[in-house]
Amino acid sequence: MDALPFLLLLLQLSCAPFFQLSWNGCSQLDAELTEHYEPSPWAPASCGSAAAAGKGKGRRRWFRLLKNSTALGDPAVAPCYADQLRVVYDRAVTDYRNVARVWTRVVSFGTTRGFGSDDDPSDPERDLCMGRLVEALEKVGYRDGETLFGAPYDFRQAPAAPGKPCRAFSRFRRQLRALVEHASRTNGDQPVILVSHSQGGYFALEFLNRSPMAWRRRHVKHFVMASTGAGGFVLGLQSLVSGVSDASPMGLAGRSLACKFTSLPSPKTRALPVAMNFRAPAVPTTCINGVGVPTTEKLVYWDGDFSQAPEIVYGDGDGVVNSASILALDTVIGEDPRQEYYKSVKIAGTSHDGVVSDGAALERLVSEIPRENFVQASEEDSRVAQL
């Protein structure tokens, strides 16, 4: 198949509804414990048994931390995995890191095998991790590791503002740049196509905007960004505010994740400069979003009682991203003078996850990927395509 190398940039579904997905991330993580690892006070002392078993043996053992459906479904083991999954903010270096004496690594970077779950091939969440998209592309001739690549990342982390330390994102940028160059080089020096879903869009945009313009134009032919808005989404506030009352091990772990702040609409956090600097990538870009699905637009906590479920006011969107954020893409990206080509596709009645899993929506997404000509047509036809 004479095809452009296709770099599938899939990052974990948005961190805000993370709890609603039962901690099922798309990227998989391995972990290993040093012999000096000590569980947190709220975790069982037995959590350190794996580290203790390795004492004096001169080597550590990697194990699947996430996604591990078997372990997370065991009440005796789940608190250990929650403790080891946490990240902490180190004020000395102004960066997030793992819990002390826990090492982690992303599984199968560079291939699509790093998405979903190894221990449960029948996992229904697989389709949400672009499983159906990968299958559709393979049917038309793309091959994993040859013309089809995956870029899983540590979903617990989030980009920091330029000039601020963020070891995880810096490492991801180096790896992704090398992968893009490898994909191009091994396919006749053709530029690649980047595809992201949900929070992957934020990482892809940061990666592109922190890459030299000459490099972008040389190596990236088309960027397809699915289910990502330009202004955050309200649902993120609910998991952050209401999550305070969740004292479960996974609730405690969840409140430590840096990515929870990436999509918040307005808080002054470490991630605010990144959110406020959302801008056009200056490469041909197609944004594909679902609309017409009831989406959380306002949360009302009566009497300031955040321990109670809020009254939810719904508006339009894809069930996660609000329509205001989706429409803002037309301004933030489409009206940027550096953005030579921009197209927005809005698919009626399609959910946040449905863009990459529902039949008709997936067919439309696939049809946009191999675009050869990027001639800006009329305002109605090229800037907004409404289905």
UniProtKB/TrEMBL annotation:
TM helices/strands, residue ranges: none
Key words of the record: Signal
GO biological process, one term: lipid metabolic process
Signal peptide, first to last residue: 1-16
Pfam family, one: LCAT
A single GO molecular function term of this UniProt record: O-acyltransferase activity
Record-linked PANTHER family: LECITHIN-CHOLESTEROL ACYLTRANSFERASE-RELATED (PTHR11440)
Name of this chain's protein: Lecithin-cholesterol acyltransferase-like 1
